[in-house]
What we know:
The chain has helices at about 25-30, 30-35, 55-75, 85-95, 105-110, 120-130, 140-145, 150-155, 165-175, 185-190, 205-225, 225-250, 255-265, 275-280, 285-295, 300-310, 325-340, 345-350, 380-385, 390-395, and strands at about 10, 15-20, 190-195, 200, 315-320, 355-360, 370, 380, 395-405. By secondary structure, the protein is α+β, with helices and mostly antiparallel strands. It has a four-stranded mixed beta sheet with strand order 3-4-7-8.
Amino acid sequence: MSQINKLKILNDPIYGFITIPNTLLYDLIQHPYFQRLRRISQMGLSYLVYPGAHHTRFHHALGCMHIMQKAVQTLKFKGVAISDKEENALYIAILLHDIGHGPFSHALENSVVEEVHHEELSLLFMEQLNTEFDGKLALAIQVFKGEYPRKFMLQLISSQLDMDRMDYLKRDSFYTGVNEGNVNSERLIQMLNVQDDVLVMEEKGIYSIEKFLMARRLMYWQAYLHKTSVVAELTLTKILKRAKELTSKGEVLFGSPFLLFFLNHKIELQQIDKTILDTFSNLDDYDVLGAIKQWQFHDDFVLSSLSKMIINRNLLKIELTEDKVNKMKLLELKEKYTKLYNLSDNDVDYFVFKGKIKNEAYSKSSEPIRILKKDKTIENVVAASDQMHLKALSKTIVKYFICYPKAGD
């Protein structure tokens, strides 16, 4: 029997050739839990705005692993002591950081799997894999949970300048064609250093950070918070909430057994055992879209109407405003569509609703991006920058919206 070559080289459209550094990482990638990410879209329903945005969380996770390799090489070259075990833990943690994402993750978290965040699920998957791989993920889990004493290792995985953000901005920019989001991750990685076990950016990299934060601001407005993306995700959330409402009343809906399990059960974090985890690991975009495709023909007016909106890309109208939505306007619209569609007070809320979106390129309340100055002192990037727009980027921008049907205008 021939031996499988586990030291694979993959071709990535962003970075070129990506290498899988060892057999453990190859085996983790081959695991069904990870292979599921091939069937989970990275940008949800953004392809309704940008037709090229069909890349997956599988792409993204491999890209993160690749640039983590580059970051470790850079830090080692600069004399930062990183053991082989620590290096491997970083690769495992970044590879698996998004493994808990469900289909259309944020819509699912706000409707079907309500009580459990994807990061909590990622940790449960990692702990289950650690059992299956005889404890070889223990250090990676310690780093992921922020329990490892070397702080910079967690910062490489989760911070305001982590490998996750560096990859998704570059990747999402490429697949959407929104060039403003393209960041120079290579330059940023080359400027990384560690001082007192804390991740820092060398002073000469400050302009690259400014461009990185500006790219983040622009990608949010042009892609993640594009009004069509926002209304599509909200509509999907409403569909799943309606499906859950109908099933709770005894209605039998079309769906895969994996989707129906979560529609029929309210799952809390402490309830999740291996059986529930395995059920979740079989849930992907195809389950949700397949169900919605069928639900558009359901007798329930709310479920069928909302499902048709997604399938045919004939979405609710969304109006963005700088000011809070006028309550009288909301009531008038609800009254109008209640009469027009003969809806109950409960049902009209599925079609007419308000909310707000936030764009925060750099959070002043979170752990800062630290600049290592030439005199070896460390300063917050906002204080270190001579650019006024960086101070503006640390301000949270809030916009308000109202959604309602296009028909009957």
